[in-house]
Every structure is written in C-alpha cells, then in structure tokens.
Amino acid sequence: MENFVLLISGFQTVFDPINLAACLLGAILGLIVGAMPGIGSLAGCALLLPLTYKFNPNTAIIMLGALYYSNMYGGAFSAILLNVPGDSPAVMTAVDGYPMATRRGRPGQALFTANLASFIGGTIGMLILTFTGPALARVGLHFGPSEMAALLLVAMTSVGWLVGENPTKGIIVTLIGILIASIGMDTLTGSPRFNFGSLYLMGGIPFIPFVIGSVGFAQVIKIMASRKEAAVGQAFKTKLTIRGSLLTKAEILRLVPPAIRSGFLGCFVGVLPGAGATTGAFLGYAAQKAFKNKEPLGSGAVEGIAACESANNAAAAGAFAPLLALGIPGSGTGAVLLGGLMMWGLSPGPLLFTKSPDFAWGLISSLFLANIITLAIAVAIIPFLIKILSVPIKLMVPLITVVCFVGSYTSSNSMYGVVVMLASGILGYILDRNKYPIAPMLLAFVLEPLLEFNMRKAFIASQGSVSIFFTRPISLTLMVIFFLLILFPVLKAALRKARAYTSPK
Amino acid sequence: MRKRVFVFIAAAVIAAGPLFASGQQGASGAASGKPYEPSRNIEWVCTSGPGGGSDIFTRMITDIAGKEGISRANFLVVNKSDGGGEVGRAQVSQAAGPLADHTLITFNSGDLMPMLQNTSRRVKDFKIIAVMALDKQLLYVGKTSKYQSFQQVIDAIKAGKTVVVGGSKGDDVATFNLMLKECGWTEAQMPYITHNSSNEAITAILGDHIDIVVSKPAASAPYVEAGQLKPILALSNERYTGNLAAAPLLGEFKPYKNVEFPTWRGVAAPAAMSGEAQAYWSTVMEKVSKTDAWRTGYLDKFKLVGAFMPSQEATAYETKFEKDFMAAQGIK
C-alpha cells in the first residue's frame, strides 16, 4: 500500500507540464530510435545523455526512461516489416513477425500483436517493479556465477526447440554461433582469442551488425538471387486502416496467455545481473515452444510474436529494479543511466529510494505513462508503417540495403560494423539456401559469452570443483531442471518402449 | 612588339617569383610562429563506452572547458571501443597533418596496461598532454561476508583456507597482485575473479559470491554510506579520511609493508601533434584542473586525488609507469 501511495506521488512529479512533455518527447524519440536498426536504446540514451546534464534530474530521467522503454516497441517495427531487427531484443520478433506480415499478408495484425504484447509485458514488469522492486533486486543478488551458469544452461537447451526439422543442421549452426561468439578478448584474462593479429577482431564480433547481416542483408541477397520473389511489394496495394489491423477476438485470446507468461519470465530475467532484454526475449520465445500453439512457431504465429515482445518489454522494466534499489545496472543502457545519475548530482545505490524518492518514483511512474503513450502512438501509426510494404521491390532492395549499411555503421561508429554485416549477410544467405536455421546461431551467439564467463567464474571460486553447481539450492534446482530437460526425450522413449514391451503381456 | 610584351611579362613573372615565394615563406613562418589556436572541431576519442568512468571524465573536461571559456574549441566526443579500445588508440596515435593538432584521446593507466600487454604501441607513440587525477583502491567486505576484518583474512589464509577476491580489470588486478606479492600469498590461496566492472564485482559481494572486493572509492561510496560495504584495507601509503578513515593500511599488519598502485587519468594526442598544440592543450587542461567545477563536481564527487601534471612531467611519469609495468609483467 505504501508503494502505491509513493507511486501516486510519482505521478504528481510526472504530471508537471515540463516532465509530461519530456516523457512524451522521450517516448517518441524511443520509437524512432528503436525503429532505426543499429541505434538501439543504448546508443539512443548515450546520445541524449549529454543534452540532459543541464536538466532537472527528474525531468532528465523521465525523458531517458521513456526513451529506453518505448525503444522496445520501436525495435519490432523494422523486424516485422523488413526482417531487419531494429534492436537486439527484437531478433526473435522477426522470426514470426516477418512471415506473418509478408507470407500471410497480415502486417497490420503483426504490428498490433507486437504492440499489445509489449503493453501487457511492460505493464506486468512495471507492476512487479512497483510492488516488489527492492525485494526482487535482492533475490537477483542470490544469482551468482554458479546460479547464472545453471540458468544459462537451461536457456541453452531451448536451442533444441529452435533447430527445426533437422537436428544435425541445428547443432552445426549452434556451434557456428558459439565459435563466432568466442572471437575477441577473453573477458577473464584479457588475452585476445582468434583475432589473427587484427585489432578489430580483438574486440569481438559486434552483435547488431552480425544480426542485421545474417537476417536482414541475407534476405537482400536472397531477393536479388531469386528475382521472381518480387511479390513482396505487390500484396499491399489496398489501403489499410487501424480497424483493418485489429486482431480477432480468437487471436486476442491466443495472444494473452503467452504475453502474461512471458511478462513474468521476462521481468525476472531483466532483474538478473547482466542478463538483459535480449536474453529475456530469447527465453520467452523458447518457453513458448513448450506450450501448445495453434500454428507452428516460426510460420507467423501470434503466440511467437507475443511471447518475445512481452518478454523484452517486461525485462526492460525489470532491469530498473537492481538499478534503482541497489545502483546495479542490469544492462548496457542501465549503465548509461547510472552514469547519468552521477552527472545529475545524485548518488545511485541502496539509498536512492530513501534520499531521492521523487526521482525514483517519478521514473517508475513515467514508465507507466510512457507505456500508454507509446501504445497509443504505435497503434496510430500502423497504417503509415504498413505503406513500407507497398514499396516496389526494385526500391525495397536498395532501401533495406541502405538501412543495413547505416544501422551496422551506427552501432560501432566505424566501417568495421559494415564489414561484419556484409560477411554475416553472406554467411546467413549460404545457411538459408542450404536450409540451416538462423535462430539457434543467434541464440548461441548471445548466450555463449554469458555462459562461459559465469561458468569460469564459478570454477575459479570453487577451485575447479563441479560441486558448486550442486551444493547451492538455486543452482541445484536449475541443474535438476537442466538434466530433466536433456533426459526427457530419452526417458520418454524408454518409457514408451517399456510400455510397448509390457502391453502384449 | 608582341615579343617584347611577352619578354616583359616573362621577366616580371620570374622576378616576382622569388618575391611571391618569400612572401609565402613569410606567411608560413608567421603561421608557425603564431600561438596555436584550434581552427576546426576537436575530435576527442574515448576508448570505452558511454556512461562509464572514462566517458564521464572526458565529458566533464569538455563541459568545463566550454562553460568556463577556457577554450573556444568545439569538442566532439567519440566513443571508439572496438578491439577493447585498441582501434581508437591506434587511429589516434597515427593521425597526421592538421588532424593531429585537432585530435585528443582520454588515456588512463587502465588503457595503457592492456595496450602494453596486447600491442607493440607504447607511450612514445603519443604526445602526452597531461595527467589530471590519481586514484587508489581499497578492499571491502559485505555486511554478511564471512570475514569482517583484514586480520580475519590473514588468519584464514594461515589456517589454509581459500579467500576469493573479486574486482574489475586492469589496475584493480595490478593492485591486487602487488598486495599478493607483499603478503607472499599465492593465487591458489587467494584466487581473483575478474569482473567487467567494479559494479559487477560489488554485485557479487552483496550476494556473498566472493569474500572480498577490490574497488576504487568512487564505485563503492554509496554502498559504504548505506552500510552495505565495509572497507577493511586501504592499498595506499596514507589512510583515507571521511567514511573510509577506518580502513587500516597494509603496513599496520606487521611484517607487511604498505602497497600503493596509484592509477591515473590523463589526456594524450597523436604523436604528430605540433609542439605548439601540445602546449596549448596542456595549458587548457591546467586551467580546467584549477576550476571549482573540476574540484567539487569531479574530484570530490568521485573521490579522486587532484594531481595535475603538465605535458613534460606527465610524459616522464607515464614512461616510468610503462617501464615498471613491463618489467613486472616480463614484457619486452
């Protein structure tokens, strides 16, 4: 109840005309930044941060908080319409969003699904943040290296659900993802790995150009290679309205359960140190595979879009819990905001809620407001966004190419990003042509560095003993889940065999 | 007639040639004699990501230099973190022509150490502009940590127990190694877990995943104030003041001696920067270091030690640091 009163007082701060304008501006900028591939919330907040130094801290954080949050909405736009994820958490959105928009010819519904799921996930995340934020942040502290490694092992098993019809091909692309992720500086010892003397490779393969290339640019090559696929631009000559983009009642009923489930899961992942919205989206999508879906995931299913969009928005809200309650950034963007807190003259850390309640609750309230503002804007602009798809293919190809080049350059401020994008585009095209799934490679690429880092830290702490994974309650529980997931198909087959053997008797 | 005109013009041109040449020489001589003033945007490279310690340091200087009217230059801060910052450092060290006089880089001990370990680039490949501030480390424990004083840590090691330490990269590791060497302990007795940042290491100790954390005062200050971290040892030659005053020095635990590994924050420029430009920027940094905004808004807030060194002194200081570090690491 006390938190509810504080939240209301936070709304008083937000409804100050200047703060309200800052929230609106942040939400609009976040949508734009999110929709532009390569920029993302991290760069968006970093670019805007120096401009806010002269602001009142409340106004500044309200604007940046709204930008960060609404960015999660914007990232889905280009993922759904162009198959180029605007931001890393939107990678999984493209898996179902793009087929729904193009193959099924329902771009309006795909965008509406993403917006509504984002709203549901975000609201769940914010409610959890409001009522259990500090407590949840303390729960997050119990996740040390061994717990994180066990959780990531569980997450890695979701590769099994993403591999598609051919497990061998799935395993091969997973290994490619792991191999590419291991290029760069060893985070524990600081020594370079697989860089072949190149200064650029020493910093590793940047994720955004890698994704833009392997998903977006690979598609450009594919269209150019098979010219007959010019149909993409032909389907949407008819004028689409907001009403024409709405989902049916049955589809909303399909959307809500995965959005709620992913909302809780995503928020929890967001709270964990270093996990972030991208991991949240991957886990949300992978978890959805375990549930019954009306249409197969990957073919343009409502459930697929809802699961990952809800998870990444909830994770974005959840990441504020350790930042506000403990001064610990849960993501790269959180680290930028932490730098901002110091520049605005505030002390981030455990005393922030006590010393600057206006600031902390103002921020939380602004997230609620940004969620509503962004949903309204995002739904209102659907008819305009869809117009992108009526662009003829001869213009669409150069357009996507430019987006890929600009996005990959912007992400690292250098041509290195463009080179990575081109190389991964070729890799993505070769894999796609030979029917290798891309999603397991991206999942492995995201999770491998986290898994390796945490596993090695756990082994240093235990001096090489595996007992650390089995002597702590959380890691033991997660390891049991991990082994059950791995052994489930084997046990199921053995059980079936045993039944078949006993039934004739 | 036409021939005469031609000869006249030719003679005039030939005669005017040396005059023109000398005029040009005079002009360029005057230009080089003139004190340097930036004539275009200054690209200031920061080799770590936005929002971190180096980024705040950079933006603080550019902000003060502009606000206080110390320099009229327009600063463009560019974060180039490719290759762990090595790409940005390589580009700056090799910048030539007019660009050399209009490029600066944030250059800290935390940048120099990996550069020495991973590349053949050295301090001599840059023009050092200034050292602006020094920083030191302390050891902390959490409220619920196993050990609550450094004496308990010594006793635990003597009893054959393992004490797990966590901290950030670069200078935190170097300071820890110095302490380990002084105490005569091994990495098996006191393993060190490298984290991506001090914040990450503090998260680990708050969750009791490590026994001790190494951190600079800036990152740990809010936790010390909230009573969640307790300083148990200052790796310094003098005790700290304020809420860190209770932290004893290593020398207070006989027979050990104090250890100190002062880490520095500074500014450098391309090797091709002219002497005039180097002097100009060194003066700008000196003026920044003398402002109230720098003292209260940066040094006091982030608990750093103000230690301005102009270019010559800073070059000697960083070269010695490089020599000592390379000798300690066995780098040739």
Strand order of the largest sheet of chain A: 1-2
> How many individual domains of chain B?
2
Distance between the termini of chain B: 76 Å
Q: Report the β-strand fraction of chain B as a percent range.
A: 15-25%
What is the mean pLDDT of chain B?
86
Specify the structural class of chain A.
Answer: mainly alpha
Number of discrete helical segments of chain B: 11
Q: What is the number of helices of chain A?
A: 24
> Total strand count of chain A, please?
2
Write down the secondary-structure element order of chain B.
HEHEHEHEEHEHEHEHEEHHEH
Alpha-beta classification of chain B: alpha/beta
Q: What is the first-to-last residue Cα distance of chain A?
A: 63 Å
Give me the strand/helix succession of chain A: HHHHHHHHHEEHHHHHHHHHHHHHHH
Helix content range of the residues of chain A, please? over 70%
CATH class of the largest domain in chain B: Alpha Beta
Short description:
Chain A is mainly alpha-helical.
What does the model show?
The complex is a heterodimer of chains A (505) and B (332). Chain A has 505 residues and is mostly helical. Helices cover 73% and strands 1% of the residues of chain A. A two-stranded antiparallel sheet of chain A has the order 1-2. The longest helix of chain A is centred in the first third of the chain and has 35 residues, at 107-141. Chain A is globular, with a radius of gyration of 23 Å. In chain B, helix 4 crosses helix 11 (311-329). Chain B has helices spanning 2-33, 53-67, 86-94, 109-118, 150-158, 171-183, 198-206, 217-225, 275-289, 292-300, 311-329; strands spanning 42-46, 75-79, 103-108, 126-135, 137-142, 165-167, 192-194, 212-215, 229-235, 263-270, 305-309. Chain B is an alpha/beta fold and 332 residues long. Mean pLDDT of chain B is 86; it is low at 11-31. In chain B, the strands form 2 sheets. A 6-stranded mixed β-sheet of chain B has the order 2-1-3-10-4-11. A 5-stranded mixed β-sheet of chain B has the order 7-6-8-5-9, sandwiched between helices. Helix content of chain B is 45%, strand content 19%. Chain B is built from 11 helices and 11 strands. The longest helix of chain B has 32 residues, at 2-33. At the A-B interface, helix 3, helix 10, helix 17 and helix 23 of A face helix 2, strand 2, helix 3, helix 4 and strand 7 of B.
